[in-house]
């Protein structure tokens, strides 16, 4: 299967470091963070300025639901395709295309003149947004040192709350002056930094080794011949020549793949449902719309800290155990959010607690999930898990209102924030333990 080669074996001379990272590792982490920040800014731009778009373009009320559902479908298809492409052609190339799709979609959004053009623009943008997330995280996982890999992957996740926070600033400043079109043009600014930085980023040694093996395997006939091809990094040579989705459901990865997918789907379904109805929940308790904005701001701000704490502790005691603790406590916070709110301060506190733990657990979950898949199928595995997010978004859009009308706001919130977090917790109990600091190839072997 080839020997296990560590990243340090490929460092032939001392190199300058930035925050303890070599230049390439630093640039990979920076671009991943900026990319994730940018795509979340763009996504939240739409939700914040849609009333202005609707008024300006004279759109009917049903169009927001149609656009949101179409965006989720576009995201599903994009993530399913992007993963295998990154495993065969390179993470760097696919990453750049995701940024390009986002850029073009943002520009077309600003230029939209009606429902159809806006729908196409948002679907194109969402295809780039959804694909960028996991491709960028794969690059961080494969390009940073084993001992700090989980921390830096967790840091890159903070782009989610940072993006939503920056949206509040940008919309408040630019929308009154430039209108909704100006907001989307502003969303293009980070793209130039990312694209310029991408020219200086290299693929990881382990991916280049895998790519070379596959090229050599194509020149030989039969799986036995490919087994004699030498590799610097340990790899299951028989499975590495199979289609990557088949690899995910082979006996060695099947259980982990399914549990990680359900874990992510259930968590995101609950989060997306509440995201749709946070203003309605506030109203049900007698609070105003502006109160719900304040609650949302508290959640994203505190959530960023939850990401970092989870990433830090996960790098010390283990990412799986930290994720499970965070989910359990997040379910408790979600239960109090559903049944224990008597003032706006209590609502803000329990929403922030939910965000800190349940949403913040992603700071440990994402690096744990990424190191659970081998390099030969990591891009596909990560994107398949990301696919669950967008399935959850689609289902939340078509079922959340029905649940509220069927069981009431409080019980629905409990199901979304409490029960969903605990189901994800139970899925995590069935996944393998991974000791922090192991090289990626050591984990798989």
Automatic annotation (TrEMBL):
Its main location: membrane. GO terms for molecular function: carboxylic acid transmembrane transporter activity. Keywords: Membrane, Transmembrane, Transmembrane helix, Transport. It is a multi-pass membrane protein. Pfam families: Sugar_tr. GO terms for cellular component: plasma membrane. It is found in: Cell membrane. InterPro entries: MFS_dom (IPR020846), MFS_sugar_transport-like (IPR005828), MFS_trans_sf (IPR036259), Sugar_transporter_CS (IPR005829). It comes from the Bacteria. This is MFS transporter. It comes from Alicyclobacillus acidoterrestris (strain ATCC 49025 / DSM 3922 / CIP 106132 / NCIMB 13137 / GD3B).
């Amino acid at each position: 299967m080839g020997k296990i080669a560590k990243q340090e074996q490929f460092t032939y001379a001392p190199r300058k470091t930035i925050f303890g990272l070599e230049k390439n590792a630093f640039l990979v982490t920076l671009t991943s963070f900026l990319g994730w920040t940018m795509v979340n800014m763009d996504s939240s731009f739409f939700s914040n300025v849609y009333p202005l778009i609707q008024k300006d373009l004279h759109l009917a009320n049903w169009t927001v639901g149609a656009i949101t559902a179409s965006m989720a479908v576009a995201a599903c298809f994009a993530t399913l395709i992007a993963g295998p492409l990154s495993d065969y052609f390179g993470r760097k190339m696919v990453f750049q295309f995701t940024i390009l799709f986002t850029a073009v979609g943002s520009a077309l959004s600003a230029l939209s003149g009606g429902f159809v053009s806006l729908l196409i623009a948002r679907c194109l943008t969402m295809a780039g947004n959804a694909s960028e997330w996991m491709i960028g995280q794969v690059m961080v996982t494969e390009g940073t040192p084993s001992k700090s890999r989980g921390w830096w992957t967790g840091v890159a996740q903070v782009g989610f709350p940072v993006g939503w926070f920056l949206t509040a600033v940008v919309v408040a400043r630019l929308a009154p002056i430039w209108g909704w079109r100006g907001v989307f043009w502003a969303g293009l600014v980070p793209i130039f930094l990312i694209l310029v930085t991408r020219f200086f980023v290299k693929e990881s040694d382990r991916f280049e080794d895998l790519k070379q093996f596959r090229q050599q395997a194509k020149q030989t006939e039969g799986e036995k011949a490919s087994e004699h091809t030498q590799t610097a990094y340990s790899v299951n040579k028989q499975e590495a020549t199979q289609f990557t989705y088949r690899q995910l459901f082979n006996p060695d990865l099947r259980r982990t793949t399914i549990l990680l997918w359900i874990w992510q789907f259930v968590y995101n379904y609950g989060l997306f449902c509440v995201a749709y109805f946070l203003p309605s929940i506030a109203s049900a308790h007698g609070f105003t719309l502006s109160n719900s904005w304040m609650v949302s701001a508290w959640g994203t701000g505190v959530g960023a800290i939850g990401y970092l704490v989870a990433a830090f502790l996960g790098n010390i005691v283990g990412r799986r155990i930290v994720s499970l603790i965070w989910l359990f406590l997040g379910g408790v916070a979600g239960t109090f959010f559903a049944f224990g709110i008597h003032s706006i301060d209590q609502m803000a506190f329990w929403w922030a607690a939910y965000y800190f733990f349940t949403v913040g657990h992603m700071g440990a979950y994402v690096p744990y999930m990424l190191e659970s898949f081998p390099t030969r199928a990591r891009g596909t595995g990560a994107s398949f898990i990301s696919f669950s997010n967008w399935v959850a978004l689609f289902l939340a859009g078509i079922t959340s209102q029905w649940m509220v009308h069927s069981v009431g706001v409080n019980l629905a919130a409990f199901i979304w924030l409490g029960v969903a977090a605990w189901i994800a917790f139970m899925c995590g109990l069935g996944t393998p333990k991974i000791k922090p600091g192991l090289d990626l190839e050591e984990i798989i072997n």
